[in-house]
Structure formats: C-alpha cells, structure tokens
Amino acid sequence: MSTTHEDTEEQNLAYNVFARACVSRGTLEHVTGRWGGLTLGALHEGSMRFNELRRRVDGVSEKMLSQTLHALERDGLVHREAQPTNPPRVDYELTPLGREVAERLMTLIQFVEGRMDDVLAARERYDARRGAR
Amino acid sequence: MSTTHEDTEEQNLAYNVFARACVSRGTLEHVTGRWGGLTLGALHEGSMRFNELRRRVDGVSEKMLSQTLHALERDGLVHREAQPTNPPRVDYELTPLGREVAERLMTLIQFVEGRMDDVLAARERYDARRGAR
DNA sequence: CCGTATCCTTGCAGATACTG
DNA sequence: CAGTATCTGCAAGGATACGG
Description:
Two copies of one chain form a homodimer. Chain A has helices at 6-16, 24-32, 36-43, 50-56, 62-74, 96-114, 116-132; strands at residues 48-49, 78-83, 89-94.
C-alpha cells in the first residue's frame, strides 16, 4: 500500500458513500425516501397489517405503500408474513437489521425535530435578509 | 395534561414526524434528499468553495448544488461566506447545528454501509424466491 | 469565479379500475 | 383484505446559455 495519498482516499470515502455508483445508495434512498422513513417509523411500533399501515401513514397511496414495502423487504429490513387464510391476512414487521436502521433514523429525525425552533429562526433571518436586499 | 391517551400520543409522535403537515418534514427532506446528504457529507470534511464542492459531489449540476446550498443555508445548517474580491470567492461550511445533523446522518449512512453484505444477501434471497414462483 | 434564468426531459407519484 | 395494472400530471432534475 502506498502512503502518500492515503488521507485523500479516506476523505473520499465520506462523501463517496453518496456517489452514484455506490452500492448503499439505493438502500439509503429506500430508507430516507418519502415513504420509506414513514413506514419504518410506523413499523418501529410493532407488527402491522397492510391497511392498518396505510391508515397510519399519512397520505400514502396503496401503490406507494406496496412499492415501499417491497423495496424494504427486498433489502431485508422488513419481514412479510402472509397467512393463506380467507380473507387473507398479511403482517409486516421489522427485521433485526431493520430495527437497527430504524433506530438510527429515528435518532436523526428526533434531533432535527428537537431543533426546529433554531431552524425556524434561521429561516426568518434568511428571509429577512433576502427581503431587505 | 390528561393521562388517559398519553401513550397513544407518544406513539403518534414517532411516525407523525414524517406526516405531511409536520414542520420538520421539509428540513428532513433537505437533509436526506438526493443532494442534501451528499453536500452535508462533503462539507463535513471542512470548508469548501462552490466549484470545489461541485467537483466532489458526483453528478450534481450547478443548478441542483445551488438550490441545495440555499435550502441548507436557509435552514441554518450551512454558512455562506462571500468575499467581495475579484474574482469572487465564496466558502461554504457547516454551522454547529449543521455539524450535529451531519454527524447523525453519517451514523445512519455508515451503519447501512457496513451492513450492505446483509442487504445484498437479502436481495438475492428475495430475487431467488421471486424468480422461482 | 460564482452563480441565476431558461427550456426540456424523465421518472415518480396520484387516481382509478380491476384481480385473487 | 391485499394487493396489481395502467394512465396521466407534474415537478425534480439535467443541459445550456447568460449575468455579476
């Protein structure tokens, strides 16, 4: 290993996580996307059925919920348990991995949520400056 | 404060953070969005100029970078330092609040990044099942 | 060098209707 | 109940050109 450009590569790592070619990019988008986060949040409270989830997630359509659930299931964050009864009953729940991801996501969300007064204040300052100019 | 429906409200809090009407929703989208996370990541390494940032953030257009930077600045996560020299020089850096947000975002990203082998394995299992049916 | 303004394309998401 | 299929709009995003 060469040592001359080592720190350059380390620096690259931090933002390349988001680079287009990065493998984790897709999963991250499922998690942080419009409905992914919401779904993980709801499921973080416990196992839930499709329509139950649909009612809890404000504004999601059947299509989007279905799509989101499939993506999260494919990534191994959500487990789908279908009982072949009639009428059908399907339960969704977080996998252990999904729970860990959801927890870290919640940490971020709750931090931002807790600092919204700062954000709102910053916005007012920004808008005031903009308006003045 | 009433105590009868307290836990219901606590539960609501967890997913309502993502609800449409929620104030923090906008900021969260700036942070977790396509270019917001990337920009925060790059800036987490230190102060940077516009074109420097543009070169580092893989695939971003001038328009999107500009837009992203404005959104983050307005939310008080990024500070813009313009020197009225010629040619102009503008530096962007994280505010203390921005640094805290970036750190929590990084925690999430790096966790997912570190578990991508699990995710990839889950995907193969999922696709194999799908293909079989 | 640091952006904004404009046009134009594409892909995501909503609505609706239908199936097992 | 638990979804899939299709159509359509609209807005995010890319390319390009120009301004301070």
